[in-house]
Amino acid sequence: MAGDRLILEPNGAEMSDGQKLAAPRILIVEDDPEMVELMQNVLSLARCEVHVARAGGEALELLHRHAAARQEIDLVLLDIMVPGMDGYEVVARVKADPVLHNTAIIMTTALDSVSNKTLGLGLGADDYLTKPFDPQELLARIDAVMRIRRSEQAVRRRNEELSALIEINRMVTSSLELDKVLEATIQGIREILHVEAGSLVLVDEETGNLVFRNTFSPAQGWVTGRTIRPGQGIIGHVVQSGESRLVNNVERDPYFMAEVDDTGIVSRAILCVPLRIRDRTIGAIEVINKLDGEFTRQDQELLEAMAASVAVAVDNANLYRELADFAEELERSQAQLVQAEKMAAIGRLAASIAHEINNPLQAIHNSLHLSMHERLEEGRRRQYLAMAQAEVQRLIEIVQRMLDFYRPSRGGVEPANINGVAENVLALAQKRLQHGNVRVHTAFDPALPPVPMVPDQITQVFLNIVINAIEAMPSGGDLWLETSLSEDGKWVLASFRDTGQGMSSEQLANLFEPFYTTKADGTGLGLAISYGIIERHGGEIEVSSQLNEGTTFVVRLPVNRASK
Ligand code: ADP
Ligand code: MG
Fold first, then answer.
1. Which positions ≥6 away from 425 have C-beta within 8 Å?
2. Global pTM?
């Protein structure tokens, strides 16, 4: 008899996924006391849990009460002719109820006209039984309905798992931050697999040890951040072998080590799968003690599917991190280079700066000396002191300008006028221009709009170009510095034209290359760095040159674009 397998041995029966079946919880809705007693006897013998309601309204209430207590009634044996609300109405209400609609219903009726039966089925009842019925038939029908119901449940559960898996996959792969990926994984495991504890370990690349990165457990024993050696315990074995391990009785497993797999709770069963990427095992996910039954192949497949996307996400996060570190390092060394070039530029100005400082110092010295003369009339003394003070002021300005230029860029973008920058550069290079016999001719457009820039970076660019011009005219010459607005009003231009040696096509082809220099003491960095600065401002540098005649540099900056 079909019913024997399921109902008479409810605790021994196994479903395809290995889960043990609980005894079905059955509600009899019937007002005939003799009928109730008969069914109760049959069902109790079959070890079902039996509840009874004598009217339709009472039945609905009881169903709701059980659902609220998470002890859902699996199946209702419903008489059509019950007092109050009749059986059809109960079927209609149960099937329309969002909480109860999965409850199986077998209608029992003495009316055996076809239309009565079909009415019940049409409303959603799962089966019908005509009274009087044979007890064996009752059990067989219940068995059949319960089997369908359970496979429906399995499908529903599988669906839930799959959509949770898709959701995890989305969460896990949408983040490039390792911590977020790991947290999302552990959250997902908690939701999908009903287990007591779980953890995610990653292999530490340097030591080869396994680090518990994220864990959950009802006890406090399982500490995040704890480290174990490769090969230790089930989790260590899984990482070493790269193969999943499903253990439903840890005492019988040769790899189980209480101190390693210990979670603060008593481990009975462990399911552990490796995190693998490109033939390498980078860690593992371990879950402990399934709450409803034993771990199954299906659980293993589910966890492996999760592990596959987690491994990819962890790998992505690591690559991204490396890339970010590299970019940061690059930025740091670039900033160092810019500063080094600044120092080199200052170095090139140093000799003339010494003069620039020496002259006012000499004047101060003289003024003070004269003012100390004993028989000096007061008016004269004041005049000398005023001269000394003016020179001191000049010195302060020179030093301030040098310091402003010298200190590392703060990198703040602000609207500024390039005329001001050009004037500042000429002031910085003033002595050097004088000593090099360079005549400076300026034509600044007074109506230029301010443009967004990092002023001391643009200062550095202009100073490089001016120093290059001076160095291209060893026996002196002319330097024209002009600023203007492009015809379309979109660019502000600064052009620097010298009457120096000019450049060969080979020089022209290489001058922006880092470390390209034709000078004995050159760094070859000035123009490379200038190029980078102007590019980051969204601008351009153009060069034209004629050997033995001279060179023109034109820097253009966009009026309407913030620098990066
Ligand atoms: P450095 O000045 O240290 O050599 P730069 O990057 O500033 O490095 O310049 C690279 C090279 O470009 C110079 O060595 C020189 O050959 C050439 N160059 C730059 N500006 C001029 C110029 N105004 N006239 C002629 N050659 C120039
Ligand atoms: Mg240079």
1. 459, 462, 463, 466
2. 0.50
